[in-house]
Amino acid sequence: MRILAVDDDPIILEILKEVLSTDAHRQVSVAESAEEALSMLAGADEQFDCFLLDIQMPGMDGVELCGRIRAMPQYARSPILMLTAMSEKSYIDRSFAAGASDYITKPFDMVEFEARIRTAEQIVEERRRAAESNLALMSLKKQDGTEQQRPPLSEPVTVADVDGMIEPLAFENYLLQLGRVQQFMSAVIAVKVANIAGIYQGCSGRSFRFFLEDMSDALADSLRRWPFLMCCFGNGIFLISVDRRVAEAVQEELRTSLPAALSEISPMFDDGTPIPIDIAVGSPSYPGLSRAVRSRR
Q1: pLDDT digits (tens, 9 = 90+) for 277-296
Q2: What is the crossing angle of helices 62-70 and 34-42, to 10°?
Q3: What is the pTM (predicted TM-score) of this model?
């Protein structure tokens, strides 16, 4: 796995190179600024697989660099891990909104750090295999004209180019990180398409993907008044994280505005008939808060 580590502290970079290079399958490159990293990416003969970014750096910070990397089509789904001393919720929110996959605070435990790197390696390998499988399916489709197979209904889906939408794994890591640093200011609201099984059966793989994109657009439109992060978790469930102080207002807005937003987009089956959508908006839940209350007793 080719790794690019970016930090303005040369000592940290030396430590990262030493730790990561214990595995012969890893090739580690380093940059001391965001600008140097972008120059390396522009001139790279071979793509990088994973990025480790510090946040506080002179000039362009790591969050902006994360967004710049994520905007490059070849790195749209590459693991990006933020390695930083910044544990405030604002930095965590900005990082995941910019496209970070994970967030590790310094000083970090080396055992945990290695576990996160191995998870990133697994993601890279799984996506490589998926890409090879998709190429094989596309080749088969060209040969016999068959429709591409739909992914399992329960499979989490990454929807690109929708405000606030992040990968399901990144969403889980976001909530875990808030718990690690005792930031219990977020609430999670689940929105479920209650009749998703029927929609799934009536759609081709292509039209079902379009439906999930339409749902994501409608949710983002309904949530535009507040900062939020969300993911498509599978089985027609969308999870949304918002500031807990506005969670009830968000819940009410979704219940009133989402049907109208979906009606305006008007998702359709392959034959052009409208897709009937039955939406259920759950009550806010507060991850980590109940544990924190119990621990104080």
Answers
A1: 999 999 999 876 444 333 43
A2: 20
A3: 0.85
